[in-house]
Amino acid sequence: MKDDPTLPRQPRLRAWFPGGSLLWPLAGLGALLLFNLVFATGFFRLELRDGHVYGTLVDILNQGSKAMLLSIGMTLVIASGGVDLSVGSLMAISGAVAATAVAKGTVPFGAAVGAALAAGGFAGLCNGFLVAVVRIQPIVATLILMVAGRGIAMLLTDGQIVTFEHPAFVFLGNGHLAGLPFTLFLVLLSLGATALVMRRTAAGLFLESVGDNERAAALCGISGTRVKLWVYAFSGLCAALAGLVATSNVKAADSSRVGEMMELDAIFAVVVGGTSLTGGRFTLLGSLIGAILIQTLTTTLYNLGLEPAIAPVPKAIVVVGVCLLQSSRFRGELSGWLRSRRAAA
Amino acid sequence: MSPPLLEARGISKAFRGAQALSGVDLTLREGEIHALMGENGAGKSTLIKVLTGVHPPDAGTIQWEGRPIQPRTPHEAEGHGISTVYQEVNLVPNLSIADNLLLGRQPTRLGLIRGGEVRRRASASLTRLGLDLDVRAPLGSCSLAVQQMVAIARALDIQARLLILDEPTSSLDEREVATLFSLLGRLKEKGLAILFVTHFLDQVYALADRITVLRNGARVGDYPVAELPRLRLIEAMLGREFHPVSPATDAPRSDSPTPPEAFTPLLEARGLGRSGGMNPVDLSIHPGEILGLSGLLGSGRTETARMLFGVDRPDQGSLRINGAEQEIRSPREGLRLGLAYCAEDRKAEGIIPNLSVRENLILAVQAGRGPLRLMGRAEQETLADHYIRALNIRTASRETPIRNLSGGNQQKVLLARWLALQPKLILLDEPTRGIDVGAKAEIERLVASLRGAGTAVLFISSDLEEMVRNCQRVAVLKDRRKIGELAGADITPSGIMRLIAHHEG
Question: B353 vs A212: CB contact, 8 Å cut-off?
C-alpha cells in the first residue's frame, strides 16, 4: 500500500482529533473500497426506495454502528492505558433492562432507556472501581463483568428471550431519518458530544497525560483514579447505547447472543484507528474509521460468499497489516528492504 | 608477583553521544574486596556492564589472568568466572530456593528434573557458604537478605572467581547487612575477588581493601582503604581537589543576608518523618530564601522533598505553612497550598513524553483550574511562548512532543510548568542533573531570580559547588537524618564534607 495522494488531509479535523496519523486506517479503508470497486458488482450502488437510501455502503454504516458506539468508549479506556473487555456483556445487560421494562408496557420508553443507560454506566463504574481503586489489571478486572454480565442479563430476563413490538424502541435500531438510518445520527451525535467534551474541556488533556505518564500527571495534581473511574463508566454508557441498538435490531433481548465478541471488534477499531494500546494520545475519528474498516471487511467477506466461520482469518490479516503500517519502525525497515532489493536488481 | 585477576585498561563507552566512560582503568586481585564508588552518573553501572559483557566497550582492553578477554554476553563473562548479582534480585520468587539455585542447570533423568538431587545439591552449596536454609521454601517468602545470599550462592555455584555486587545492601536492614558481610569475608578468605558498589561510606570502611573512585565517567583514583580517609573519599567523589582550605571558593559569600528569623517561615517542619523513609527532620524555609539539602546519595534528600509535597505521606511530626498547621496528603493538596515539586527523575515523574511542549507546560496550571475551565488556545500559546522565550527553551515549535527535546530543554519546560503556577515554595530536586553546562547556568540564574521575586526554594543538588553558589542555608543530611545546618559564610564545600565525614552515624 503506498501513500494515496487522493486521500484528503484534514488539518482542521486533526486539531480536533489529535493522536496517530489517520492516513493508514484511511489507506486501508481506501484499499478495501478499491477492491470492491473492481471485484464486487453493485457494491457502490445506492437506490432510493420509499424515501430511504439503500445499498451496501449504507448497510455497512448501519451494521457497524454498534462497533462504532463501543469504540468511542473503548478509545478513552485504551487512552487511559487500560482495556474494557466487558462491553459485549454490558450490551446484553442494557438490552435486557430496556426490553423487560418495555415488555411490561407500563414503563414509559424514556425511563426504560434511562434505566438501561444507567445500568451500563453503573456497571462501567464498577469496572473503574476495580481498576482504579482496587488496582486490578484492567484485562482481569473487566473480564469479571465480561463473564458475569451475561449471567446478570439472563437473571433479568429469567433466561428467556424477551421480544417486543414497541414502535419507539424498534425505531431506535431500524428507523430512518432524512432517508438515512437513524443509527448513523446516533453515532455522529455520540462522537461529536464526546469529542466536544474531550477537546473543549481539559478532560482530554488530563486523560492523555494520565495514560502517557500517570506518575508525572499525579505530581501535577491530576488524579489518575478519578480519570479512570470516569472513562470506564463512560465506556459502560457507550456499551449500553450499543446494546439498545443491537436489541432494537432484532426486536428482542437475546442475552446470550447480543454483543457477542463485540469487545474484540471495538478494540480492533481503536487499535487500527491509531490509538496506542500503551495509552496516551487518542483519536476518536481514527477509531470511527477503524470501526468502519472492520465492518467493510466483514461485509466484503460476506459478499464474497466466505463462510462466517472462516471470515476471522482474513480479518486478522488485515488488522495485522494496518497495525504494521502504523509502526514507523516497520515502515522504515520495509522501505530499507525495498531499497536494498532495488539496489541489488 | 602474579598478574592481577582482572585488569581493565582505558575502557571507554559512549551512549548516543553521551560519554559514559572515558579511559577508565580498574585492577582487581584475588582475595580482595574492592569498592567502586561514585555519585550518580559517575559510570559505575556502565563499567560493571562492560566487565560482564552487557555492553561492549568502544575502546580499551580487559585482561583476565594476563590474557585478553572480550565477553560479549553475561553468559560468556560467566564462562570466564565473572558473576554478577544485581541490586534487584533477578530470580524467580515463586520457585523454591533449590530450584532458583539450579535454575537452567537442574540435573535430569530422561528429561525430567530430579527433585531430590536438586534439593541435595542446593543444600550442599548453601552449606558451603555456611547458610542453613530450608531449600524447599519459595524464594519469595524469604527476606531480601536471604534472597540476596541465594543470588550470591547461585553466582558462586558456577565456579565464579570474581563476584560483582551492585548495591547489595541498599534494601537490607542492619542485621542482614552484618550477615552478608560475614559471608563476603569468608568468600574473600577463599581467594575470591569481590567488586561491590555501595553508597554507604561506613560499609566501605568496614569491608573493603581498596577503593576505586569514578567521577563523570573518568577514574579519579585507586586507593588502599587505609590511605583514603573519609573526607578525601567524599572529595574525590564530589569532585574537589584536596586542599584544607581553598581560598577561591571557600571565601565568604558576598550576599549572605541575615537570616530573616523575625518573619514567620513560609514552611516549618517539626519532627516530620516517615517510617521506612526518613527519620524525623526539622526544617524551616522563609519567603525569598534558598534552602539547600545536601548529603550523599541515599542520605534522604529526595525522601524529604517528597514528604513535604505529599507524594509520600509523613506519619509523624507536624508541618506549618505560613504559620498555620497543615497536613499535606497528596500532591494536589501540596499544589493548593502553593508548593511545587520538580522531581529528580525527569523521565519517570516529569515529562509526559508524547504530549507537546505546550501541553506539558500548561498541565499543572490547567490541573489547578480543574477539568471544566479549559484555558483558551490563545492563552495556552501565550503562556507557552512566554516561557519558551524567557527560559530560552530550544524546540522546533511549541507543538513538538517533549520527548524530542534534549534533556536540558526538557528540564526547562518542566521548570516552566511549575513556575507558571507562581508557587510560594518550589522544591527543586536535582534540577541540573544530566544537562549541559549552558543550561545549568541558565537554571541557576533562574533560581536566583526566583529568590528576588520572594519565592522560597528548596534546592537539592549533588554538586557541592552548586549548593554553595545558590543557597543561603544548607541542611546537611546523612543516613536519612539531618545532621546539621550551615548558613551564610559557613557554606563551603569542605564545610559540608567535613560535617558528613565526621558525623558519627
Answer: yes
